[in-house]
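ARCHIVE CARD
CATEGORY: sequence design from structure
SOURCE FIELD: tokenized fold
FIELD CONTENT:
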């Protein structure tokens, strides 16, 4: 039993970006998946050129046992407090704002949990000849390069690099802009996820419907 080194291969930079930026896992969480410590994961992120969040910015970590000193984890409320909490929370619906889920009014593809929106309506639209001609025009205009990171689709290893996406600047929900070439941008998958994530604070590549 001399083998103490981890035998799990480290994730690709792309998968790392997906775990850290899209799924928003912290370094300790990713470390657990790959049997490495958080420091190693942080080093991988730096090397991959992935912008790291400041330490302690991950709310999940605040609740980890022995983590943030503000954490209540491991302690118990007294019977008296439990009664008070039960009374106080009676009839309260968590996660609801004015009786509605807080994301209810957010356009689907601006929802941070947006998964690509493969609704039947979308699928049908993406099969139309109109869309196919539009997509071709976008690929040609962008010269097959991601408009955020400039990755050239022709130079990537297609077996390990996922497909590129055509992103709608004004949401897909706005019908009349769906197949307008000037409303579309070619992005690689990680950049597309970034655009729709909370990391995109300046809302790059996003626009509201014109008034
Ligand atoms: Zn990109
Ligand atoms: Zn998009």
């Amino acid at each position: 039993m001399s083998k103490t080194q981890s035998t799990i291969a480290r994730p690709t930079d792309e998968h790392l970006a997906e775990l850290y930026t899209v799924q928003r896992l912290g370094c300790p969480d990713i470390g657990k998946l790959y049997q490495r410590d958080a420091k190693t994961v942080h080093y991988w992120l730096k090397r991959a050129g992935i912008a790291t969040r400041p330490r302690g910015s991950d709310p999940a970590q605040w609740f980890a046992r022995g983590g943030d000193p503000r954490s209540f984890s491991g302690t118990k409320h007294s019977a008296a407090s439990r009664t008070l909490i039960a009374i106080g929370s009676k009839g309260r619906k968590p996660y609801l704002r004015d009786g509605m889920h807080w994301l209810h009014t957010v356009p689907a593809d601006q929802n941070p949990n947006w998964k690509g929106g493969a609704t039947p309506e979308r699928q049908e639209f993406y099969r139309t000849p109109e869309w196919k001609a539009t997509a071709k025009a976008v690929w040609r205009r962008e010269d097959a390069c991601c408009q955020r990171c400039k990755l050239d689709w022709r130079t990537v290893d297609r077996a390990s690099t996922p497909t590129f996406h055509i992103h709608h600047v004004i949401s897909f929900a706005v019908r009349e802009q769906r197949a307008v070439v000037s409303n579309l941008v070619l992005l690689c998958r990680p950049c597309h996820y970034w655009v729709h994530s909370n990391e995109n604070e300046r809302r790059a590549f996003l626009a509201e419907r014109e008034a």
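CARD ANNOTATION: Residues 13-62 form one domain. Strands lie at 96-97, 100-101, 164-168, 184-188.
SHELF: design records, drawer C
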